[in-house]
Amino acid sequence: MKKDLGVKDYLFPMPVAMIATYGPDGKVDVMNMAWGTLCDSNMVLCNLTESHKTVKNMKAGSDFTISLATKPLMAASDYFGMASGNVVQDKFERSGLHAVPSKHVKAPVIEEYPLTLECRFHKDYRDDEGNYMVYGEIVNVLADETILNADGSFNFEAWKPILFSSLDATYYEIGPKAGKAFSVGKEYLTKKH
Ligand SMILES: Cc1cc2nc3c(=O)[nH]c(=O)nc-3n(C[C@H](O)[C@H](O)[C@H](O)COP(=O)(O)O)c2cc1C
């Protein structure tokens, strides 16, 4: 028996993505974004509340980086999603993390996160319902050597990425590999019934 749950935002999993920007004064701001995704192989789509300091920084000319949160950085990442740079003037400093300028875009790279997408602000869009979205062009990805295997593939055990569940407002670690995509379903391609 299935049960109707009504209208819920239950698309699982969602990313735990830290968007880092510069303010016009050069100050670093970081926010936590789960309502974001890829919309092309070199394009991210960020669903943002327009009043965030992050959005103000983008509108003032900042590009942005997106760093994917890890288990060791979970508390700092959650904090970035609760405090606003509009209110907490030393928001980033309080995290104790460190930032350096990106070599590719006008945005900070937070050094402690092992995987970072460097994104050029591409365009923004407000739909008829007032939802505000920002498109970012991925111009480079920075990966810490510690999360790469010798053959260049990702070592997920060393990386320890976390995911967000909107079903219970909880961060989850990832488990073992379940199967290879574009591969485990191949038998159905040739199956006759
Ligand atoms: C798990 C989590 C996910 C979030 N996802 C989003 C999101 O996708 N879009 C958004 O606008 N705010 C999201 N937020 C809220 C912002 O991160 C939060 O309001 C933050 O304080 C904004 O910071 P800023 O004003 O310094 O930019 C999320 C917060 C948490 C904890």
Describe what you observe in this structure.
The chain has a single domain, classed as Pnp Oxidase, Chain A. The protein is 12% helix and 35% strand. Strands 3-2-6-9-10-5-4 form a 7-stranded antiparallel beta sheet. The model has no long low-confidence stretch (mean pLDDT 97). Bound molecules: flavin mononucleotide.
Quote the distance from N terminus to C terminus.
28 Å
The whole-angstrom Rg is 18 Å
Supply the CATH class: Mainly Beta
Point out poorly predicted stretches.
none
CATH topology: Pnp Oxidase, Chain A
Largest sheet: 7 strands, antiparallel
Total helices: the number is 4
Helix-strand pattern: EEEEEHEHHEEEEHEE
CATH hierarchy: architecture = Roll
Query: What would you call the structural class?
Result: mainly beta
**Multimeric organization:** single chain
What's the count of strands? 12
What is the averaged pLDDT score? 97
Shape label: globular
In CATH terms, the superfamily is: Electron Transport, Fmn-binding Protein, Chain A
Identify the bound ligands.
flavin mononucleotide
Strand content: 35-45%
Topology:
Layout: E1 14-15, E2 17-22, E3 28-33, E4 36-40, E5 43-48, H1 53-59, E6 64-68, H2 74-80, H3 91-95, E7 99-101, E8 108-110, E9 115-126, E10 132-143, H4 156-159, E11 162-165, E12 170-173
Antiparallel strand pairs: 1-11, 2-3, 2-6, 4-5, 5-10, 6-9, 7-8, 9-10, 11-12
